[in-house]
């Protein structure tokens, strides 16, 4: 069975003339798009593109397939429109990265409900890689989470730095910043899903700090609870600031994460004006400026 995301990949390559530009338009990596085109070619039983270092051209099979592909996509769009007009309130399917604090997401959901209490909302929590796969397959309308500095987004929501999260009672908690050497004897906690995990490891290793790892977890709420309880300290984005935890700048540690709304043109045509989506984005953007 040919899935819709494969048709979208194919049309994007045809319209933009290159795999790299098509990948950017579809908000996927070029290897992901190339794998999708290869899968489509296996399904139709023929190569669809002539590939060279300078340009991409349709094969005879590709030229024959392109109008069918456009018709299929028009059919999908028409079916969606009919469903929206005849069915219940529009369903808004949003993926949200798991590396946001629960309090932030709770505030966002409250804002969404205030904007439209009757809205049908479906939220999916997960890793960005998994959420982007769902977006590619048309199973999500948009994804909110950390993105590369160069990635095309529908809306930039903000940039935040990483800080040392310490128990409020810690001897260093009143400091504005700490040096790596100040932390040499501290027990630390590993946030396994942290986007800056590799940067953090390299930073401390380069400064000769090899701490005892008191805990490793994929659950950020549990991680912050263990920090507040005094088990260990950790590196976390600024948005995790809360009562019981002091967020202190780590000298020389400069990574930041950019937060954005990712979608595609088709989905944004349907949901771009949604007051519910705008309320969620506004809440996250405001939280990141605290």
Describe this structure in words.
With 290 residues, the protein is an alpha/beta fold. The chain folds into three domains: 4-85, Winged helix-like DNA-binding domain superfamily/Winged helix DNA-binding domain (Arc Repressor Mutant, subunit A), CATH 1.10.10; 88-157 and 258-288, 3-Layer(aba) Sandwich (D-Maltodextrin-Binding Protein, domain 2), CATH 3.40.190.10; 159-256, 3-Layer(aba) Sandwich (D-Maltodextrin-Binding Protein, domain 2). Helices cover 43% and strands 24% of the residues. It contains ten helices and twelve strands. The protein has helices at residues 4-16, 19-26, 30-44, 60-86, 102-115, 128-136, 197-206, 220-228, 265-271, 275-288; strands at residues 49-51, 56-58, 91-97, 120-126, 142-147, 155-167, 177-178, 187-191, 212-217, 234-237, 245-250, 256-262. Helix 1 crosses helix 2, helix 1 (4-16) packs across helix 3 and helix 5 (102-115) packs antiparallel against helix 10. The longest helix has 27 residues, at 60-86.
Strand content: 15-25%
Overall spatial form: globular
How many domains? The number is: 3
Unreliable stretches (pLDDT < 50, length at least 5) are none
Mean pLDDT: 92
Rounded radius of gyration (Å)? 23 Å
Helix content: 40-55%
Which architecture of the largest domain would the CATH scheme give at its second level?
3-Layer(aba) Sandwich
What is the CATH topology classification name of the largest domain? D-Maltodextrin-Binding Protein, domain 2
The secondary-structure element order is HHHEEHEHEHEEEEHEHEEEHH
What is the overall number of helices? 10
Largest sheet: 8 strands, mixed
Structural class from helices and strands?
alpha/beta
Task: Please provide the count of β strands.
Answer: 12
Identify the CATH class of the largest domain.
Answer: Alpha Beta
CATH superfamily of the largest domain: Periplasmic binding protein-like II
Keywords: DNA-binding, Transcription, Transcription regulation
GO molecular function: DNA binding; DNA-binding transcription factor activity
Family: Belongs to the LysR transcriptional regulatory family.
Pfam families: HTH_1 (PF00126), LysR_substrate (PF03466)
């Amino acid at each position: 069975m040919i899935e819709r995301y494969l048709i979208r990949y194919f049309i994007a390559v045809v319209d933009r003339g290159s795999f790299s530009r098509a990948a950017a338009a579809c908000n996927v990596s070029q290897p992901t798009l190339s794998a999708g085109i290869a899968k489509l070619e296996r399904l139709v039983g023929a190569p669809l593109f002539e590939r060279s270092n300078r340009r991409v051209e349709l094969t005879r099979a590709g030229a024959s397939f392109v109008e069918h592909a456009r018709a299929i996509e028009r059919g999908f769009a028409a079916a969606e429109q009919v469903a929206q007009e005849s069915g219940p309130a529009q369903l808004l399917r949003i993926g949200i990265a798991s590396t946001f604090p629960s309090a932030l997401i709770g505030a966002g959901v409250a804002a969404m409900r205030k904007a439209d209490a009757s809205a049908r909302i479906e939220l999916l929590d997960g890793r960005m890689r998994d959420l982007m796969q769902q977006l590619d397959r048309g199973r999500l309308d948009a994804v909110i989470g950390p993105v590369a500095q160069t990635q095309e987004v529908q809306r930039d929501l903000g940039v935040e730095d990483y800080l040392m999260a310490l128990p409020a009672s810690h001897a260093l908690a009143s400091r504005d910043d700490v040096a790596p050497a100040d932390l040499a004897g501290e027990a630390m906690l590993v946030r396994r899903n942290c986007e800056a995990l590799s940067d953090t490891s390299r930073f401390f290793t380069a400064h000769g700090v090899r701490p005892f790892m008191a805990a490793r977890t994929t659950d950020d709420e549990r991680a912050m609870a263990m920090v507040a309880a005094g088990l260990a300290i950790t590196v976390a984005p600024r948005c995790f600031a809360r009562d019981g935890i002091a967020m202190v700048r780590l000298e020389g540690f400069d990574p930041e994460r950019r937060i954005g709304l990712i979608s595609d043109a088709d989905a944004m045509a349907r949901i771009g004006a949604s007051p519910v989506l705008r309320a969620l984005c506004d809440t996250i953007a405001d939280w990141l400026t605290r």
